[in-house]
Amino acid sequence: MVFFSFSFSLLPNNLVPTSPPSPYTIFQSHRTISSQFQVRFRRRSFRRGRGARVMVDGGGDEEMGTMARTEMTGFLPSRNSPVSGKTEIITQDIEEETVGSDKRKSRNFCGPVKLFGVEMSPDNVAVSIVYFVQGVLGLARLAVSFYLKDDLHLNPAETAVISGVSALPWLIKPLYGFISDSIPLFGYRRRSYLFLSGLLGALSWGLMATMVDSKYDAAICILLGSLSVAFSDVVVDSMVVERARGESQSTSGSLQSLCWGSSAFGGIVSSYFSGSLVDAYGVRFVFAVTAFLPLMTSAVAVLVKEQSSYTMGPNLSLLNSSFYANSKKNIINLWDAVKQPNIFLPTLFIFLWQATPHSDSAMFFYTTNKLGFTPEFLGRVKLVTSMASLAGVGLYNGFLKSVPLRKIFLLTTIFGSVLGMTQVILVTGLNRQMGISDEWFAIGDSLILTVLGQASFMPVLVLAAKLCPQGMEATLFATLMSVSNAGSVSGGLLGAGLTQIFGVTKDNFDHLSLLIIVCNLSSLLPLPLLHLLPKQNPDSADSTDPSKSN
Asked: Which CATH number describes the domain made up of 117-307+317-532?
């Protein structure tokens, strides 16, 4: 699918759920669409009448509270106390009714805070902040690009190798899900890994700001930074899946919208400063600022409500036996889940949908080498696409989350293919003949395609979350996202091959228009396989029932 005009990041945008990812790189998501605004959820059941609230989260915790309390005492004198006459009794009745009414109104106005229709519980706040950090880490993307090109003087081939290396952590996400599901660290399966992921990210960017001075050191640090984001992404994804299980697609869509909305907001914040900070202070300064951002992930780990399984001192033999037992169990469960038709067939479609070639790299070289777009302007384009990604999430959350998946994929794929052809106008210069500058046309083109791309990615995240069975949320969801990421990488490789075939280089763009046309038409190829997706009403809670899915 060709939705985004440009791809400026070395840390793949949805190989990295960080900022609003490109539909070619975002799949996995978002972050999901996801997930491109993609916080996670707590399912609550309220038992009224005895003043008790049972709150069940994905970790199995139960907390008892008094939120459902219906009795009001201490406000009025007892109705059985002596009174002087009928007038006083009537007055007391009126006062009691008034106080009760005021109490009910107060209770209505002081309800829980919601965003995208999701209650902002501590868990959901933590997930939204983690996704915000993923988005705001885009601050360093342009800095990395210019550091590799200008400071280390790497050629395009070497830069491509480092870019490929940075994508590796996103292709083995099931491993992180397996570790998180199977091996509690310090008694916790989610909280501990979030904390350590933040520290790893801070370390990697701190080294980039102070000590890195070779391409090998840079590759290692970029890899560690990507690993930090990928691992934290798997952890929060598992939290979302735990809370989305059994919910309708509409509810799951609201949760994914909150996640990817947070990511897109972070992308907006970072995009505004990314280009100007590089010009004003240099890349090392940007790396130093970026090093503080992952610490937010470590800080919010304490908000995650999770029951500790660490009830005794460490026992190495018990830990090893538990590890092997859980390993065997999770591998068997993963295989049993993946081979089910209602999981395998939609996953196959998602891979093929993502694996269509695109011309992002060729367009990047064209806009920088031919049109002369500056880093400052590229930062502004990134700001526009971040805002457009947020709009795309809003479009899905407001109008599309109750629409059947097949219809969403059909319409967005067709419109995306047609609108993607507008890049030909930029390449041929027709926009200038119409009185539109290259800069303004590029901004408008990126805005429209990003909105459509984000809206089309959100149902992918919803579908992936609903496919995951209980007990292996992190592992299976990460597997599905890795398959999506693998499709994105495959699409990039196919696009690179077509670029070579058409003879498009950093200086020769004679056949770039033909490359764009072929890539956009190829995005229509998966449409005959839409029957692999569930067809029933997506709002049904059992929409992934194997007997009803296809």
From this structure: 1.20.1250.20
